Amino acid sequence: MASVVSTNPNVLGGTPVFTGTRVPVNSLFDYLKRGRNIDYFLEQFPTVQRSQVEHLLDEVKIQALACQSQS
């Protein structure tokens, strides 16, 4: 996930952002939680690439399934 998410103390105080942007990763989850879709998110944040969002969601899914299998 390091390729699509980065942290830097000089960028938003170290908040995880989509690499190459100043868009916090958490903003994607906030949009999805409020019922917005990925297309809408990408329209609002054109510096984020669809491939970054898809890769992040794939990684989160893999981690969630790994946690489930350990339970």
UniProtKB/TrEMBL annotation:
Query: SUPFAM superfamilies in the record, alphabetically?
Result: Homeodomain-like (SSF46689)
Q: Which residues form a coiled coil?
A: none
Origin organism is: Bythopirellula goksoeyrii
What is the name attached to this protein's record? DUF433 domain-containing protein
What the entry lists under InterPro entries is as follows: DUF433 (IPR007367), Homeodomain-like_sf (IPR009057), WH-like_DNA-bd_sf (IPR036388)
- An example Pfam family from this entry, by short name, is DUF433
Matching Gene3D superfamilies: Winged helix-like DNA-binding domain superfamily/Winged helix DNA-binding domain
Q: What is the lineage of its organism?
A: Bacteria, Pseudomonadati, Planctomycetota, Planctomycetia, Pirellulales
